[in-house]
Write a structure and sequence with these properties.
about 250 residues; two-stranded antiparallel sheet; 8 helices; mainly alpha; globular
Length: about 250
């Protein structure tokens, strides 16, 4: 007797696939990558962006060739654009508090093989406004998470590329941006760290409250979308099965 799929069918499978591929990647990176910080960043990229995106696509009824192409394209575009939007948020934050950057590099020198070095320098602001520019990328992330949740909650986005784009750029990218910076601060990598800047300006308690709250919110949104979203086309097929029809 053939088993009929349901909207809840396979959620444990989703969790199992995610845990399995993340553990395998982490073990390989511990063996291959000697630098601790680089290894940690790569594990985060896999755990917070690549793996959830893979499971997101596997959880929906899209053609496999389109899925593979979308994952590759979205991952590359996200990785290349992440530093630009992060540093641009710092620049906007500086102007918002009445300051301005004195030097910046908001785009890494990709043509020289550098895919991560981007920075903004400004004159110190010693009052309560000082940490605000440092927090602006993460405020941007929270806004994007809310927009992504609203767009995918209605399950009206049926195209594989656009659903993956929203999930990768609005949800997973925001989770990585927040969690990566906060976890680095917790682990003691404080040079140029934004949450360490919050600790200097508002105290370590507020830095941890904001870091934990933002990270927790991002995880909740990303997990909810991963478990709950089904493309409208897939939902229609499940309804046909439940009504005893097939196509």
């Amino acid at each position: 007797m053939e088993q009929k799929p349901t909207l809840r069918h396979g959620r444990l499978g989703i969790l199992g696939i995610f845990i399995f591929i993340t553990v395998v990647q982490a073990l390989l990176l511990f063996i291959i990558v000697p630098d601790v910080r680089t290894r940690f960043a790569l594990i985060e990229i896999c755990a917070f962006v690549i793996n959830p995106l893979i499971v997101f696509y596997l959880h929906n009824n899209w053609p496999r060739k389109i899925v593979i192409l979308n994952i590759v394209v979205l991952a590359i575009v996200w990785f290349i654009t992440l530093p630009f939007f992060h540093e641009l948020s710092h620049v906007i934050g500086l102007y918002a508090i009445g300051s301005k950057p004195i030097a910046y590099q908001i785009i890494p020198k990709y043509w020289e093989g550098d895919f991560s070095t981007a920075w903004v320098r400004s004159a110190p602001v010693y009052d309560w406004r000082g940490p605000i520019p440092g927090l602006c990328p993460y405020i941007k992330d929270i806004i994007l998470l809310i927009i992504g949740f609203i767009l995918l909650k209605g399950k009206k986005v049926s195209k594989a590329f656009w659903a993956g784009f929203i999930y990768a750029f609005f949800c997973l990218g925001s989770l990585f941006d927040i969690a990566n910076n906060y976890f680095l601060k917790v682990l003691g990598y404080v040079t140029g760290n934004d949450f360490y800047g919050v600790s200097l300006g508002w105290g370590d308690t507020w830095s941890n409250i904001i870091g934990i709250a933002f990270t927790s919110f991002a995880i909740c949104i990303c997990v909810w979308v991963l478990m709950a979203y089904k493309s409208p086309n897939n939902i229609r097929k499940i309804e046909l099965w439940e009504n005893g029809e097939s196509r």
